[in-house]
Amino acid sequence: MPIGFWSVILGAMCVISCGEKQKRSFNAFDTYLQFYQEVNDSLSKNPRYVCAEAQKRMTATTDSTTYYHYVMLLAKAYMFRSDMDSAAVCMNQAEAYCHCNAPTPQISDLYADIYNMRGNVLARQALVDSAVICFSKALNYRLNGDRKEVLPDISINLADAYVRTGQYDKGALWYRKSLSFFDSLGTPEAKRFPAYYGLAQVYMELRDFELCDYYYDMAAQWYSEMMPYEKCIYLNNRGNSYYFRKDYPHALEMFRKELAFARSYPDMAFEVHLSEMNLGETFLLMNQTDSAAFYLAKCEDFFRSIGNISALYYLDTQLIELALKQNNLALARKRLAEAVKPDYVEPNMLHIRNRYLQHYYEETGDYKKAYYYQRENQRIDDSTRNERIKMRTAEIDLKYRQDTTLMKQKIFIQQKENEVLGLHQRMYVWMSVCFLILILAVFIYLYNKKQRHLFRMRSQHMINTLRMENIRNRVSPHFIFNVLSREINSHSNGYSENMRQLVKLMRRNLELTEHLCVTLDEELDFVHTYIDLERKSMGDTFALSLHVDKTIDLTREILPSMMIQIPVENAIKHALREKQGKKNLWIDIRREPTGAICIKIRDNGGGYKANSHNRGTGTGMKVILQTVQMLNNNNKKHIDISINNVPLEEGETGCEFVVILPQGYDYNFLKAV
After folding, report:
1. 17 contact partners, CB below 8 Å, separation of at least 6
2. Tens digit of pLDDT for each residue in 445-465?
3. pLDDT for the residue numbered 484
4. Is the pTM for the entire model greater than 0.90?
5. Is 211 left (phi over 0), alpha (psi -120 to 50) or beta?
6. Which CA distances in Å does 6 have to 39, 82, 349, 386, 649?
């Protein structure tokens, strides 16, 4: 709109809170928030659809607070349809409900919606002082509620209202506060354009067109992200900025864009007729009376039907000037007599009316009155200029107060930096010392690394030498076994058979030393070979009893090598060899319910005696225990070994060696090491 009064009317009436969904303690309100997000864009595009959907959901809502949130959504839709009476009824119903309930965050949010809506309606009706009060209450209630994401919108509404009252410093303050709220909430830059074109409006009113264009350009970056009513605000206010510079062609361009855009939405009647009134005055100032008459006639019936006094006062002013430019003094006199007479007229609007009245009285020849209105306009110009300077000074003062706060912070930081500088100077010496220590540490590290490398090289050489010796040691016994086998084959007596078994045992023993683990089949074959060699020395009273569970596959089950052989050898050597009478050896291999394999080796040699003269060195058992210990380090389930004296039949006592091999045991020796 080409005058200060209309420059922010769309902003004041249309910035409706639209926050993201917050978590609530009841599902009904979650459903409302989801619905609100879905229809938020439709509020300005198709408010009739929003009305129908809101009424439908109200009938299905059982939660009272949620019901009245739907009522407030219905009020917003009525406002976009310019049905102010229905909007007022909805607001009164919601407010009566709030008065009857104890204050809670949800009630505070509902109060905030009510006062925010009242402020929008009052702003549209040009009751801006009352709108300021309502927006202030809405802000306070929102601070006590849950939906803090709506705070920037209410701040912008409050800023718009202050701008319309001519308090541009406070308007700029609240626009900047809205940006602070945006920062606190982490709002994307694309959602901040209402604050930018609000600040542009402030600087337009202060006639600082450089800053005005700066903020309009910032808002223009997000034009595609704006909702329909926000695009109308942007186009209307940017057109005003050209109007005040008397750049009427560019102003017409913006107002025509606004009109074309608003016409694409059936419910934007207010915006359509507002842009028509903008075009009418602009054409009037360009002396294109036919175009001016066309657009003013199109919007007159609408504003008279809704009874908007401020709009009608401005419209009557334009129609009086139009009659004068058409040289129709009678029509001008008639329109002046029938013009509305509001209780309060803003200085900008009064200035325009006085200018046209001066023109009227000049045309009628009443130069005294013409001179009076000329003097009145000079007084208004001086007053407006003074007020603008004061507002500009106040706005700069507020801005530089913020800058001064930042300056004090910088001075404080500088003082601390000076204190730190003294510490730095002392630290430089220590840093030099530390640098020298670091160089020395690096030298020592590199020296030690070189020494470790030399040690590894010597160790590797030693390992290779031992490997070669091990290979030669393995070749030598095999060569001896081959010679013995050839010599034994040249004899055919029983002695030669025993020698073959001995050679087999020695060869098998050598092979087993090369493997940490063997299969049960390989271990039992070795045990049989050993017992066959010892059987003659044990006499006819020696008996071996071997039992293997049928469920055990001897070729697949693994155990540490010599795990059975060493206990068997100990039993024969230390318990049974010198025993009189029956000499029994039992080997029992069974699978337990847990899947583990239990191996029991038992003799009837009188049991284990710590002080027996037959007790050996224990080297074999040490090897077994050390091997099992290394393997157990790599497994959660351990191999268990126990040696106990057990009672036998006929009153004898025996020694029992028991080993339990867990199922799924890992025999990887490299991991254990």
Report:
1. 112, 113, 116, 147, 150, 153, 154
2. 998 888 888 888 887 767 655
3. 57
4. no
5. alpha
6. 28, 17, 10, 21, 117
Task: Give 287-348 as a DSSP string.
Answer: T-HHHHHHHHHHHHHHHHHHT-HHHHHHHHHHHHHHHHHTT-HHHHHHHHHHS---S---HH
517-519/583-591 β-pairing:
unpaired
Tokens of 649: 């039949």
Residue 548, classed as helix, strand or coil, is: strand
**Residue 163: burial class (beta carbons within 10 Å; 0-12, 13-18, 19+):** buried
In contact, 106 and 64? CB cutoff 8 Å: no
**d(C-alpha 34, C-alpha 380), whole Å:** 51
SS3 395: helix
Is pLDDT of 506 > 70?
no
The Cβ of residue 616 has, within 10 Å, a number of other Cβ atoms equal to 12
Residues 6+ apart with CB under 8 A from 254: 235, 236, 238, 239, 242
* Higher pLDDT, residue 463 or 291: 291
Q: Which of 171, 232, 196 is nearest to 14 (CA)?
A: 232
State the Cα–Cα distance between residues 351 and 605, nearest whole angstrom: 130
- pLDDT number for residue 505: 63
Q: Is the pLDDT of residue 18 over 60?
A: no
Three-state DSSP class for residue 587: strand
- Where is 133: in which H helix or E strand? helix 128-143
**Whole-number Å distance between alpha carbons of 605 and 356:** 136
Cα separation, 395 vs 586, whole angstroms: 106
Helices 168-185, 151-164: crossing angle, 10 deg rounding: 170
3-state secondary structure of 598: strand
**% of the chain exceeding 90 in pLDDT:** 17
